[in-house]
Amino acid sequence: MGVYSPTDAQTPRRSKRWRLLSRRWLLPGMRVKRYALIALIGGLLLLLGVVQLTWDGPLVSGFFQLARWAVLLGLPQWLSGLFWMALGVVLVFLGIRWMNRSVLSALADPDTVPEQVYIRRRLENGPRIVALGGGTGLSRVLKGLKQETANITAIVAATDDGGSTGRLRTSFGIPAVGDLVDCLAALSDAEGLPDLMQYRFARGGDLAGHTFGNLMLVSLYELAASSRNDSRGGDFAAAIRQANSILRLRGAVWPATDRPAKLWAIRENGSREEGESRLRHGQGRILRVGLTPPDVPAMPEALEALRRADLIVLGPGSLYTSVIPSFLPPEIAQAIRQSSAKVCYIANVMTEVGETDGLSVYEHYQAVAAHLGRRPDIVLVHTAPIDPELLARYAAENQNPVALDLEALEATGVRIVPGDFLEKGPYAQHDPSKLVRALIALC
Questions:
Q1: Phi/psi of residue 348, each to 5°?
Q2: Within 10 Å of residue 302's Cβ, how many Cβ atoms?
Q3: Distance CA 345, CA 87 (A)
Q4: What is the largest CA-CA distance in the chain?
Q5: Which regions of the chain are under pLDDT 70?
Q6: Could you tell me the CA-to-CA distances from 44 to 47, 87, 88, 170 in Å, in that order?
Q7: Which residue of 102, 174, 233, 424 shows the fewest CB atoms closer than 10 Å?
Q8: pLDDT digits 0-9 by tens, 93-111
Q9: For residues 284 and 359, is the Cβ–Cβ distance under 8 A?
Q10: Which class for 120: exposed (0-12), middle (13-18), buried (19 or more C-beta within 10 A)?
């Protein structure tokens, strides 16, 4: 007697379901049967041509000879065979092509299929890169990276408390969403969606100043609350997971933590400031930054990405309000310290008022290492000349090029990757394509 298995009962059900699904291809309006018939006729004509060219037996002198004389008015058998073969090949090709486009048009735009196949076959075999930071710097790196690999994970600092993000944090008790939206838009493959995500309302009373993407994340958060009948609020982790699934990302975007933590800083004069917006307007050199509460949990997906990473990228971006806060959650810092992947820090081009006034590249590097508990293996530094007019505009706002004390940096044993990484334009920003070429070469 055989041993009963649950799959024995499931097999008839699966077979019945398969037969039901197969019959649906025969329903009216499927736009498949007509093209399948064209391909079938093409296959028969192709067979007819092959037989006429290769077989001179009784059947050829019967049906095939009749078809040759009736349609081609007495052409030689070899020429008739070539004609039927060519016509058959054309009909098979057209039938299959039209059938594929008909099926694909029900699922996606057929013209986008080559791009999707390219992403699936080439980019999904690319290196596993985890980029940490926030603000404009991280989103620009992501725009470049997604052209080379689909295995991208962005871990975003979620401590901003100004502008639209600050208002939403106060109203809903959620982490900062602004930088998350920028990174989601940067990795999205949906046509027109990045612009929509970053659209900022200019009027509408309380709506003015908010971006569509910020409101979308808050809406997903509130939907999570309504699904659980929880009047206290939703599940921000669930909201960001849903955003990742619906936005057609070439990679993934996660907050460093799904809890609303505040950033604090201690300056060399002993003063303590709390809140990212206040920190940016303080005076004196920053010695240390941290989170309140200090033990906020990390997103599990972010930790898994760090464990599997080939390369971990820190920056570019504001040192104390974007780059370092992205790894302040203890689990994030520990995962980076334990990772076997190379860690690359992308140094800023210009100093930032109230945050990195007078800091050199070496001091930027030391600050990252002190807060992370691990020295980066690589520092990528812009060393090419900067346009004097651009320097003058920044100097008017008390911003200057980050001093390149490369000898002190070399003394630590870190690998330095110098080069021209600046984008041409009105701002001293990194060029995504130049950065990505250097980063991919490190993998």
A1: -70, 155
A2: 28
A3: 61
A4: 106
A5: 1-31, 55-75, 104-120, 226-234
A6: 5, 10, 7, 71
A7: 424
A8: 998 888 877 776 665 566 6
A9: no
A10: exposed
pTM strictly above 0.90: no
pLDDT tens digit string along 157-202? 999 988 888 899 988 999 999 999 999 999 988 777 778 888 888 8
Q: How far is CA 63 from CA 47, 84, 347, in A?
A: 13, 14, 79
pLDDT at 57: 53
CA distance 352 to 33: 65
Stated as kind and residue range, the H or E segment containing 115 is helix 113-121
Residue 336's nearest CA partner among 310, 372, 291 is 372
* Domain residue limits, the chain: 29-107, 119-442
- Residues near 349 by beta carbon (within 8 Å), at least 6 away in sequence: 316, 382, 386, 401, 402, 421, 422, 428, 429, 430
Is the torsion defined by CA of 393, 395, 399, 400 positive or negative? Answer: positive
Q: How many angstroms separate the CA atoms of 221 and 239, rounded?
A: 5
- The CATH fold assigned to 119-442 is Rossmann fold (3.40.50)
